[in-house]
Amino acid sequence: MKIINYSQAEPKEFIGETVKGVTGHVAIGKADGAENFCMRVFELSENGYTPRHSHEWEHEIFFHSGKGEVLCDEKWIPVEAGHVAFIPGNEEHQIRNTGDNQLVFVCLIPSGAPEL
Q1: Looking at residue 35, what is its pLDDT?
Q2: Which of 2, 22, 93, 103 would bridge 97 by S-S if both were Cys, CB 3.0 to 4.6 A apart?
Q3: For 5-16, how does the pLDDT look when each residue is reduced to its tens digit (9 = 90+)?
Q4: Given this model, what pLDDT does residue 66 score?
């Protein structure tokens, strides 16, 4: 069993031309013996955004705090704390922070996908 505050998991900053202000943490993953899923927590700073991308695997997202938008079918859908999103495999998506504070969300992916 593992019980921690996600902030104790090693942070990884994402830096590049297509990403801004994104830090990820693997809260639960292979190193913990998780055989089926990986739980990641992402923090997007004010005006931050993930890259626009797609991949084979689905993922589920729970928005913990802040306000933002998710790109879905070429439309930006508003999200905030308490919202959830399901992103099917091979669907292009992006998340951006539209609030005045950090946007924090939990992302679950299947084992075999890159953890971060």
Answers
A1: 96
A2: 103
A3: 999 999 999 999
A4: 98
